[in-house]
Amino acid sequence: MPKVLLVEDENAIAQTLIYALESEGLTTVWKRLGQDALKELAAGHTDVMILDVGLPDINGFDLCREIRRQSEVPILFLTARHGEIDKVLGLELGGDDYVTKPFSPREIVARIKRMLKRAGSSPFEKKNISVLEVNVEHGTATFHGVALKLTRYELLLLGVLRSQPGRIFSRAVLMDAIWTDALDTDDRTVDTHIKTLRAKLRAVKADSEVIQTHRGLGYSLQLES
Q: Which of 83, 37, 29, 27 is nearest to 59 (CA)?
């Protein structure tokens, strides 16, 4: 997941932002001092930065100047200063956005998502791109862009699981939905088809765990990235 570097010396503000960001699935690294933030930037990849202007060891604007000598990481300034000149200065120095205190944590998260989207690091758009597509009507299914060769019942079974990702379907429900016209079938029929489906998915992606077994309950489909 994208990593947010939060540079803020006020504990209450930092904890509020960390909770809001991580609730949305964003990894957050918190630093109180500007010098520690520079070390973090040098040590590894950072996708976006929230930078408080009023830090104990260095002015946030000066820190931004230093950062821009080595990185193009998107920066959101966070400050108690409301003056237009400060906002203009922050943006001219290379900041990408500017929010004044007090602020809404949800607004910060929304702005961070927008910045990630612009930078091409957003995981939120990717959620609409499925690695598994099933079209029962046309008799087709693809996994990671590879066409799957499925029997009629394999296709129907995968279609039911794909219709509600995350839902646990019991064997009885799957039997009623798929094998309505089949005679002499039992619960083991579902298990057999699940086994062959897994084999075909793993032939495309060896470590695939798309179809999950829930002991005593049934099966579910968990989409991979």
A: 37
In this prediction, residue 126 carries a pLDDT of 41
10 vs 8: CA distance, rounded Å: 6
Among 225, 222, 195, 194, which Cα is nearest to 210's? 222
Q: Which helix (H) or strand (E) holds 192?
A: helix 187-204
Residue 134 phi/psi, 5° resolution?
A: -130, 125
Output the pTM of the full model: 0.54
Residue 75 near residue 34, CB atoms below 8 Å: no
One-letter amino acid for residue 84 of the chain:
E
> Residues 205, 169: contact at Cβ < 8 Å?
no
The letter for the amino acid at 188 is R
Contact predicate 133/146, CB 8 Å? no
- Identify the burial level of 115 via C-beta atoms within 10 angstroms of its C-beta, where 0-12 means exposed, 13-18 middle and 19 or more buried: buried
3-class SS at 128?
A: helix
Given a contact cutoff of 8 angstroms between Cβ atoms, the answer to whether 5 and 46 are in contact is yes
CB 57 within 8 A of CB 35: yes
Q: Please tell me which residue, 155 or 82, carries the higher pLDDT value.
A: 155
